[in-house]
Amino acid sequence: MTVSSQNLEKDSFELLLKQLNYDTEVYKIYVRRVLEVEHAAFYAKLQAKDRCHKNSVQAAEHFLAKNAAFIQWTDKLDLACKVIDQQALW
Predict the structure, then answer these.
(1) Residue 55 has what pLDDT?
(2) Residue 82, exposed/middle/buried by CB under 10 A (0-12, 13-18, 19+)?
(3) In 3-state terms, what secondary structure has residue 70?
(4) How many CA atoms lie within 13 A of 8 on its CB side?
(5) DSSP H or E stretch at residue 80
């Protein structure tokens, strides 16, 4: 009987080890999937921010093209000609 009781204890210990190994593997998979989901959410937010930034830049460029004139001059007469030209365009 002692041999069978030792075998029983050994088998129950091996079963416990197998269960613990299985639990750790399942936990590793769970952590990996959670990180993948978090990474995907972060990347989606990053893409949305990038899209918003590009739209803002495009809107600002459009606004400036329609409503502002950037003039560079070297002479007062040259400035007057450019201002008159710009006013004619408006």
Answers:
(1) 96
(2) middle
(3) coil
(4) 5
(5) helix 76-89
DSSP SS3 for 41: helix
Under DSSP, is residue 90 helix (H, G, I), strand (E, B) or coil? coil
Give the distance, in angstroms, between the CA of residue 68 and the centroid of all CA atoms in the same chain.
Answer: 34
CB 71 within 8 A of CB 79: yes
CA distance 84 to 64: 19
Query: What size, in residues, is the chain?
Result: 90
Predicted model pTM:
0.50
pLDDT 10s digits, 18-71 = 999 999 999 999 999 999 999 999 999 999 999 999 999 999 999 988 888 776
Residue whose pair of structure tokens reads 């029983």 in the numeric block: 8
